[in-house]
Each structure stands twice: as structure tokens, then as C-alpha cells.
Design goal:
Strand order of the largest sheet: 2-3-1-4
Helix content: 25-40%
Largest sheet: 4 strands, antiparallel
Radius of gyration: 13 Å
Number of strands: 4
Shape: globular
Oligomer: single chain
Strand content: 25-35%
Number of domains: 1
Number of helices: 3
């Protein structure tokens, strides 16, 4: 199996349906919501590409934004979290 890629995905999307669809897809990939429009998690490199393709395929509005930040292993160790972090999620299997 490929080594995991640690991602933070943050978005500002006006349309409720598109925003909800994106949140559901990120949870499908095992990412956890750490703020209302911020998700964090570890995915495979292939899943990262798929997530980027899915986001790119959304009908985003002119003012919508999605930021995808990949953290290296060293950066993950150096991050500072103040407060409770939601438990890590596993992939959703249907």
C-alpha cells in the first residue's frame, strides 16, 4: 500500500448543496471535520488525486475557494493543536 498523504482541505463555498456534497465526499475518504469548512486526514496518493479531480469537477461559483494543503511528516510532528481534536476516522465502507 502507498504511504499516506496528510492533507488539510479548507473551503469557502456559497452553495449549500455543493458544500454538503464536498463534505460528504471528504468524510467518505476518512477525513475528519476539524472546523465547519476545514477537514484533516491521511489518504493515499491515489486518493489525493481523486479528491482533487472531484473538487475540480464541482460547479464552483466565482467567489468559491478550496485550499488543499499537504503536510510533510516533519510538519505534521511540528503542528500545534490547542483544544480537542475529533477522533481519526476510517474510510466509510458501504
Amino acid at each position: 500500500m502507498d504511504e499516506g498523504v496528510h492533507l488539510y482541505i479548507m473551503y469557502d463555498i456559497e452553495d449549500n448543496a455543493i458544500r454538503g456534497r464536498l463534505a460528504a465526499r471528504l468524510m467518505f475518504y476518512g477525513m475528519r471535520r476539524i472546523q465547519y469548512s476545514v477537514f484533516e486526514g491521511v489518504v493515499s496518493p491515489r486518493e489525493k488525486l481523486t479528491i482533487v479531480e472531484e473538487i475540480d469537477g464541482l460547479a464552483l461559483g466565482d467567489n468559491d475557494k478550496v485550499h488543499i494543503v499537504e503536510l510533510c511528516a516533519r510538519c505534521v510532528k511540528k503542528r500545534i493543536v490547542i483544544g480537542d481534536m475529533p477522533e481519526e476516522r476510517e474510510h466509510l465502507v458501504l
